[in-house]
Specification:
The chain has 117 residues and is an alpha+beta fold. The protein has three helices and five strands, in the order E-H-H-E-E-E-E-H. Helix content is 32%, strand content 24%.
């Protein structure tokens, strides 16, 4: 990552979900997203190809296991697709599905998805 992203854009209820994180987890997630806006990678993350190309899962290990799924491959913004509390070692399928659905919506809106007629 090397580009500055001017804004954060939250997709679906991701902003409300992040607002419900405990204070310290919310602060850490906000700091890490700011790092992504600066063109850096968060301190703890992994690619999420099951969600879509360029999607990442940011790990916030403060007051539990919190996750932020985001995409930063477009220059205009960092798109936050899904925020949630993780209760198992593996990311739950409903969280992957929700993120993938929002990724698909995001792709259609930005002309990055092929039209399938």
């Amino acid at each position: 990552m090397s580009a500055w992203h001017e804004t954060l854009k939250f997709v679906g209820d991701s902003q409300t979900a992040m607002a419900n994180f405990p204070l310290n987890a919310k602060r850490e997630a906000g700091f890490e997203l700011w790092q992504v806006q600066l063109g850096l990678m968060p301190s703890d993350f992994k690619p999420m190809p099951t969600v879509g190309a360029g999607a990442y899962e940011m790990r916030v290990k403060t007051q539990g296991q919190w996750r932020v799924i985001y995409v930063a491959k477009h220059a205009d913004a960092v798109y936050v697709l899904h925020c949630f509390y993780k209760t198992t070692p593996k990311t739950a399928q409903p969280d992957i599905d929700s993120s993938a659905k929002r990724y698909e919506l995001f792709g259609v809106q930005h002309g990055t998805k092929e039209n399938r007629s």
